[in-house]
Write a structure and sequence with these properties.
Helix content is 40%, strand content 15%. The protein is an alpha/beta fold. The protein has two domains: 11-48, no CATH class; 54-358, TIM Barrel. The strands form two sheets. Strands 2-3-4-5-6-7 form a six-stranded parallel beta sheet. It has a five-stranded mixed beta sheet with strand order 8-1-9-10-11. Helix 6 crosses helix 9.
Length: 389
């Protein structure tokens, strides 16, 4: 690494990291300005391996959007529809249960459920949905709702956010999604998501959930009209809340998709910027255990490279994804487990199937004939899809 950093602009940052010091705001801005991607990758990979060793994870999951009808008009969103548009959709509880049953038959362990802010569904509908899904299998983990959805549900129920979260948890909610964070700077937020909740409101929903003992993920939408300083501010606010609660299980940077929306962006995230963002995020978020390279947004090949730039997770098999596809991404809607294993192996990592909370379900070991052999952690129970007594 000494030779690698001979001509790098990251010497002093490396010294800080070697000494276990936290990076400052100025340090973080410099990471996003650096053109030394190799040096940045080396620092981020070392930081990741100190936390996670040589493992990289994935999850068997299915995305299910219950509806894309939404009362908001976020400029960047290609997913939302009004009832008058004629091309929206809304799934009944029974239809959601059918999709969940199909997912369970595939061995899936997590349902990831979000939607728009529906103009007419009552709060009890969401409770009924969670209860119906929970009744299918106690092993199925329900990762549902963004912070703005929770605030919308609290408004529907005419009760505080805390009470709403308690009732959702009692009905079966396991984990909150990290969606809707976008960029916290209010000026940027006003340009891309006018009318959405503020950064403070997003953070307060997650703070409240964490104080109730819940866990959640976090995100950042990058590559549109924000600056490097805006990205840094966003990451530092996430780091601050993690210092306070410890409730985030992972961070997922989301590259902006420029098609089919109202924000004119001439230079969407490049591969270079995506890898630099992942590496910088890994170094800034020193209190986060896991960082996901979201293959749906960046493609599986670039996500695979991100495993040597600070990421330790490729997200999931997905099965069905609408939000990024409607925004213009060309990535497929699903990946098989075999493809995920192959991508992780090719990156020189040990594949680990995880659950919603990034806890290991199966650790895979290669055998002589090239086939994969799962090794279950002692407390992980049987592999996904195995029969349960």
């Amino acid at each position: 690494m000494n030779l690698l950093f001979t001509r790098s602009d990251l010497h002093d940052i490396r010294r800080k990291l070697d000494a276990g010091e936290r990076l400052s705001r100025d340090d973080a801005v410099r990471l996003f300005a650096s053109r030394d991607l190799h040096g940045l990758a080396a620092l981020a990979d070392a930081a990741n391996q100190r936390r996670n060793g040589n493992r990289a994870s994935y999850i068997l999951n299915r995305y299910v959007n219950y509806s894309n009808y939404c009362i908001l008009n976020c400029q960047f969103c290609a997913f939302a529809r009004k009832k008058r548009n004629g091309d929206g959709f809304e799934l009944t509880v029974d239809e959601m249960v059918t999709k969940a049953r199909e997912a369970l038959e595939l061995g899936i362990t997590e349902l990831h459920i979000v939607g728009g802010l529906h103009p007419s569904l009552p709060f009890d509908h969401y409770l009924d949905l969670l209860r119906a899904l929970r009744a299918l299998s106690p092993a199925l983990q329900l990762k549902c709702f963004t912070a703005i959805e929770v605030r919308h549900l609290a408004w529907l129920a005419r009760q505080p956010v805390r009470d709403t979260l308690v009732r959702l948890r009692e009905a079966g909610l396991d984990c909150l999604t990290g969606g809707g964070a976008e960029i916290f700077n209010p000026a940027v937020r006003d340009r891309i998501a006018r009318g959405k909740e503020s950064a403070e409101e997003w953070l307060e929903v997650h703070r409240t959930w964490h104080r109730l003992g819940g866990r959640s993920t976090s995100t950042m939408l990058y590559g549109h009209v924000e600056s490097a300083a805006d990205r840094v501010d966003h990451l530092l606010q996430l780091r601050g809340l993690q210092d306070e609660t410890g409730g985030f299980v992972g961070f997922i940077p989301l590259p902006y998709q420029p098609e089919n929306n109202a924000i004119p962006v001439t230079s969407p995230p490049s591969g270079f910027d995506t890898l630099r963002t992942i590496a910088a995020s890994r170094l800034i978020l020193d209190n986060f255990d896991h960082l996901t390279a979201y293959w749906v947004g960046m493609g599986l090949k670039l996500a695979q490279i991100a495993l040597s730039h600070g990421a330790d997770d490729l997200h999931g098999t997905i099965v069905e994804e609408h939000i990024f596809r409607m925004a213009g991404t060309a990535s497929p809607q699903r990946q098989t487990e075999a493809i995920m294993l192959k991508a992780i192996r090719e990156a020189g990592r040990i594949p680990v199937q995880r659950n919603t909370f990034y806890e290991p379900v199966r650790v895979w070991e290669a055998v002589a004939d090239g086939e994969e052999t799962p090794v279950c952690p002692p407390d992980a129970g049987p592999p996904a899809g195995a029969s349960m007594p």
